[in-house]
């Protein structure tokens, strides 16, 4: 059985969890997780590995990730990985700025797969003016590369024969027996609240709907925010909002999505969306801005509904339409389920990984 050393950082843990237990049936896996040993992420990874009998090792980096001192630590760790002599080294980790050079020094290039969560730099990225040069340099390496969407892969400037595209697997946080309210449409915003996610647009749209629509509805906003006050000032009708401005445990996610009619993603920019993968996993219709990244992953009138980006009138009109036509929910829900089963189901995604690895080895 061919061996794969799979490297996951704590911030991409939920990307890999839906995949590893299935790949273990076809490959010998050695899982390396970058996480603090006593952290919740490490606990999740450790329990997952024990449950599915996966060989797991934890790596940590002392100091700030942008410190040059990190390079020596990465070199020692890559030496350990090299000694494993695996057939594939799958790096689902951001190598910026120092890890890449340690990989180049110790790991055979033809055995490396680098995941690429970004092809185009978006406004919310840290050090994006430097990161764009890093991406150009990275694409010139003699590695294999995996993108998660066509829209990002088109920015790849390297050897096209070594570029692979596999969509993100859907997340499953457990089952829920709950259902959405039969008398009121519920819209959900979920995830960390930052400027590029444009939650203010959703609040303003909801306020506009309230002025002209007499039917009941709720806008549920769930997520951590460093400065909620500017958003709070936009709220004039607090009775239509259900606010949970904090991070919630993963165990709350099933009920959260099961009781939601529509996940709303009013983003100004996007590469991949974690909440979108969760919504698809729970067969929750989506309302999103018509960004290029969303047009690829959200089929209008099939898996969700699109509105004009950063246009409060367009979003408000769409929200009002689904409130006044509640049958739209079940129509989209049914179409979405069929699309997911045929295109991005667990079986489809796993087969793509198996084919990619077998073609490389």
Keywords:
40% helix, 13 strands, 6-stranded parallel beta sheet, single chain, 361 residues
Task: Quickly count the helices.
Answer: 14
How would you state the average pLDDT, rounded?
Answer: 94
Which runs of at least 5 residues are low in confidence (pLDDT < 50)? none
List the quaternary state of the chains.
Answer: single chain
Strand content: 15-25%
Please report the distance between the alpha carbons of the first and last residues: 11 Å
Tell me how many strands there are: 13
The description of the largest β-sheet is:
7 strands, parallel
Strand arrangement, major sheet = 3-2-1-4-5-6-7
The topology string of helices and strands comes to: EHEHEHEHEHEHEEHEHEHEHEHEHHH
Backbone structural class: alpha/beta
> Measured on Cα atoms, how large is the radius of gyration?
21 Å
> What is the helix fraction of residues, given as a range?
40-55%
Shape category: globular
Can you characterise this structure?
- The chain contains 14 helices and 13 strands.
- The chain is α/β, with parallel strands linked by helices and 361 residues long.
- The chain has a 7-stranded parallel sheet, with helices on both faces.
- Helix 1 (13-23) crosses helix 14 (346-360) and helix 3 runs parallel beside helix 4.
- The radius of gyration is 21 Å and the shape is globular.
